[in-house]
């Protein structure tokens, strides 16, 4: 995957970063750590400027997340109840759980969206409930962009400091990402097997 990302970044420059970061959030298997890390290397080589790299990466991240927010927003809270009533067993959810999530997003939605930007397995997934529970568009975009900017700065600066050795990180990022996905699947299967409705 590293070579493909490298070719797209070198061919497209900031537009390549922008496109890759959109794709990374719509199709999470593409790691943002790799994209922004390589961007940081290019900054160290004098081939990119840090401010433009961060702008391209943050805009791409925000747009990619906004896609899932809109999916949730279009589906809407009102249409959710028949789905929960019918398929709640498979989601291990009852309607009271959904109402509790709705209250959580009403009070702390911006903090939840901001904090989840730093969690590899949940960075993109949090956008869907934010849309479902009608978090305001502007509020979602501001907090998503804020969290993305901080995270992208960390990744780009790591690439800048590590230089060409950053390529070696791809050997570890892939297995760690796979382990996170496997862990999430196992956790879901355990919850599915042990879940009993309270209502």
UniProtKB/TrEMBL annotation:
Keywords: Cell membrane, Membrane, Transmembrane, Transmembrane helix
Subcellular location(s) of the protein: Cell membrane
Keyword Zinc: no
Gene Ontology CC terms: plasma membrane
Pfam families noted in UniProt: VTT_dom
TM segment ranges: 12-31, 52-71, 111-133, 140-160, 172-190
Membrane topology, from the record: Multi-pass membrane protein
Predominant location: membrane
Boundaries of every VTT domain copy: 30-159
PANTHER family registered for this protein in UniProt: ALKALINE PHOSPHATASE LIKE PROTEIN, UNDECAPRENYL PHOSPHATE TRANSPORTER A
Protein name: VTT domain-containing protein
Taxonomic placement: Bacteria, Pseudomonadati, Pseudomonadota, Alphaproteobacteria, Sphingomonadales
């Amino acid at each position: 995957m590293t070579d493909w990302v490298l070719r797209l970044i070198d061919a497209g420059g900031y537009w390549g970063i922008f496109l890759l970061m959109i794709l990374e959030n719509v199709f999470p298997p593409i790691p943002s750590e790799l994209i922004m890390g390589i961007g940081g290397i290019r900054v160290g080589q004098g081939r990119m400027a840090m401010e433009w790299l961060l702008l391209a990466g943050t805009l791409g991240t925000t747009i990619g997340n906004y896609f899932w927010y809109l999916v949730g927003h279009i589906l809407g809270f009102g249409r959710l109840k028949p789905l929960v009533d019918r398929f709640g067993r498979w989601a291990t959810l009852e309607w009271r759980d959904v109402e509790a999530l709705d209250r959580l997003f009403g009070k702390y939605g911006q903090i939840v969206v901001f904090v989840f930007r730093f969690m590899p397995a949940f960075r993109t997934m949090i956008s869907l409930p934010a849309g479902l529970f009608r978090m305001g568009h502007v509020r979602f975009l501001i907090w998503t962009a804020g969290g993305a900017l901080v995270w992208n700065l960390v990744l780009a600066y790591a690439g800048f400091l590590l230089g060409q050795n950053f390529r070696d990180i791809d050997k570890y990022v892939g297995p760690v990402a796979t382990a996170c996905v496997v862990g999430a699947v196992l956790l879901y299967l355990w919850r599915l097997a042990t879940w009993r409705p309270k209502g």
